[in-house]
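--- STAGE predict ---
source: upstream dedup step, 1 unique chain passed
mode: sequence only
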Amino acid sequence: MIANALSIAGSDPSGGAGIQADLKTFSALGVYGMAVATALTAQNTRGVTGIHVVPPDFVGEQIRAVFADIRVGAVKIGMIATAAIAGTVADVLARHADVPVILDPVMIAKGGAPLLTDDAVTVVKTWLLPLATVVTPNLPEAAALLGEPEARDRDEMAGQALRLVGLGANMALVKGGHLPGNDSPDVLASAAGLTWFEAPRVATRNTHGTGCTLSSAIAAELAKGASRQDAVAAAKAYVAGAINAADALNVGSGHGPVHHFHALWRSEGTA
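--- STAGE serialize ---
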């Protein structure tokens, strides 16, 4: 039976991030995708120019409608936008504690635009983080959640990942893409300890939506029944392939998207 996964996130009309990236990821990984919009953005590969927030009550109504009719195998949470939406999402999902939740604490767009209000950070930390099966912050997001300076090396990354678990997340995957150097290491922390995922840094500008794609890939794998550790490993491999193939796309003049269907679409010139 094909598994179902739900994305709760903002919309990206250029298709590289947000619910569009999540639905592409679900489809590429063989999962039926559903999406609840928390905000509409005006953006492209060069940045975000506008945000229209969906009323919190209607966000809740969307989520309740899905759960009332459809078996949800996993939930990915992306852009939340406001404290009121964060509280609504937490309240609804708390009634479905058996469903894995992947929390991608989206705070700043790749172009620098803020995507989460300051008061919402506290609500995400206190209400949503304890519901998370896996939380997937990058280094600035991990620092903001903890109220600490941004990690500068692997030891500080590992410490912050463990402290996020201490705040209530079941597992924390802290992404090291902001570290200097030729490598892009991620660290997964749980009560059982630390696991490192190593990857070389790919020389490409087309990395728009990598965080959305990784978190939705983890959700897809969990929906299919993978263990948490295996889900993270499979998602990392999928995203690495999507980044490596990103330059095959011709989308925009800024930070282009990754290639979600790299394993499914034929390359130009193939039979």
